[in-house]
Fold these 2 entries.
Entry 1:
Amino acid sequence: MPELPEVETVRRGLAEHVVGRRIADVEIRGARVARRHLPGPDDLVARTRHTSVVDARRRGKYLWLVVADDADQRQALLLHLGMSGQLLVQPPDAPDERHLHARWRFADDGPELRFVDQRTFGGMALADLDDAGIPESIRHIAPDPFEGAYDQAAVVRRLKRRASGIKRGLLDQTVVSGIGNIYADEALWRAGIHAERRSDLLTKPALDRLLTHAREVMTDALGQGGTSFDALYVNVNGASGYFDRSLAAYGQSGMPCRRCGTPIRREHFMNRSSYSCPRCQPAPRGR
DNA sequence: CTTTTCTCCTGTATGC
DNA sequence: TGCATACAGGAGAAAA
């Protein structure tokens, strides 16, 4: 479940291993992985081969390679890992992965880049960059808490106007991006707020503290290389992150709360699981 | 307009 | 043992 810390870990790997290299060839297998590139996979291949990778950037859970052609016309190769996507830097002679969907070979004949995705919720598309350097197709995605463009007071004002559960707001990528189910639960646990508390009934200071916890828990996770529960999330070298050992709420049902010892509970919410401490995060009345 | 629900996918775990 | 079902959930389309 790659969220901001996991995607940032991957972005750093791309910055180290791919930026500065010239793409010699691109191979896309099947129609699904490039389904959001409306002109089709052949168009994507034709427009990215023989370009140079000049940057690797990220907003929320989206990341993109900035590629430049010989006239220095720049475009974004926009990538999303979805649930199970991996970007792997592999020796050209490494055997194909079971769910290999795309491969980039480079003019230097060095390691190649591969997009592997078991569930294919992830994918790629080409996009134009706007004046701020953001791909046009993700203009609806709000800045994430690590960006200069992030305005926490503005996010607080938006959450203060929403008449729905606070966790929905945390997960809404048009409000604040990068937070998924894991870090939403961790931020809510740190803040002592139940997922279904109404966003507009929380105080602005409480919303501000919650967002600060969200940024801090993602900073902590980034320091551990992200969270891995299984082999589905790995960095570009195939290595797992270690933040799963530090999770206080997510996936911890039955384990004692690290603050008060009460067993962590699991509830169903928005067609997924929510984990919280019954004592530190009391459910709102009238539910 | 805002908010909610549905759908895409496949490997793993669990139940009968 | 074998088959059916639940579950993991990001994001966008569709519905309310």
Entry 2:
Amino acid sequence: MARPPLSRDAIFRAGLDLVDREGIDALTMRRLARALGVAPMSIYTHVPKKEDLVVGVVNEATTKMVLPPPETPPWDAMRAVIREFRRVAHLHPNLVPLITRQPPTGVDSLRILESALDALRRAGLDPAATARAYRISSSFAIGFVSLESGGYFRPLEDGGGSRRLDLESLQGMPRLMEVAPHLATWDSDAEFESGMDVMIDAIRRSFGV
Amino acid sequence: MARPPLSRDAIFRAGLDLVDREGIDALTMRRLARALGVAPMSIYTHVPKKEDLVVGVVNEATTKMVLPPPETPPWDAMRAVIREFRRVAHLHPNLVPLITRQPPTGVDSLRILESALDALRRAGLDPAATARAYRISSSFAIGFVSLESGGYFRPLEDGGGSRRLDLESLQGMPRLMEVAPHLATWDSDAEFESGMDVMIDAIRRSFGV
DNA sequence: ACCTGAACACCGTTCAAGT
DNA sequence: ACCTGAACACCGTTCAAGT
């Protein structure tokens, strides 16, 4: 099989693929080189540092976010962007710990950020208010996706009967015993939609738009 | 100087110290052993895997969260717990990427979780609703703390004039150009408090309590 | 039970060398 | 300009050996 020539894009695509298939720890310069069929040092011709690789892989994923059409009503557009963030996070669950640590910085990925800011500006918020509203929306989206894709509540599963948590420690904790079974099992789609609605209503009310 | 004997607690304390002083990448079995003045393999007598070390260090931090007094009015107690999470995260900013990936699992750290669930139950929510409300609160807290302590918006600083982002890519993005200067600079204390109020009001309204 | 050194299969990255 | 192998200073972890 003839190898396509090395390029930044090919490297980032292969890196995302590696993360999807084998997890975040598999994203090493050496394993990536092996996946690409080149020597470890060849990657350094195109990507100066491991950190740049990580940023590139994150951008590779966020570039897949689909923009809402320009004439979409502002708050529908905002909802669409937030849904797209979650959709892409679900497409690459292993990448979630990285995708939640920095905004898109690639030219293509910046378009989705631009379109979120455009929606908020069109809704009547000034630049400072737009920044506030975007931070609140991002907090919600990042926190929500961290919880669901990171398996945050997994250690509390089975009412604490799992390997991670022994039943004894829950003895003096009646609330934990009755609530834990409900924490890790839930309708995350419905909760995401209703949480998003609540948050957007709150933003609109607090800015009077 | 005589070294105190090795123990799980001493190891976790030294690990948290290492993270605080030198960052998350410095938390390796070998550097931790050096900090403790023992051979690398000595740690394995008390901690079977690196992953257990990480969990222990996270619990070491979350154990510092102070419980609200039991008779605190439910929603004040809930606010207090969320503030404590953020306070401890600020105490150990380098730990934020780890603290946002799993709930406390240590016996001591579970008390803070118990007290949050207790507040929600006392407020009149049933166990299933309590789980929902706790997830929403956690989404907000985790997302907010990720944004502020992770320096999420740093790559967008200076209106895009930083090293991470070249000005050219912002040419066709007028919203980004006008909003970016407001994204990375903000009154995070005030925004946290108002965001928390909005979220708690929304929970109360949606559950009718 | 607790601690250790040597060894193994990995890392990211520098450097000198090739085309 | 692009790719490479050898080398360096690291990792986590197994194993056999010590107390």
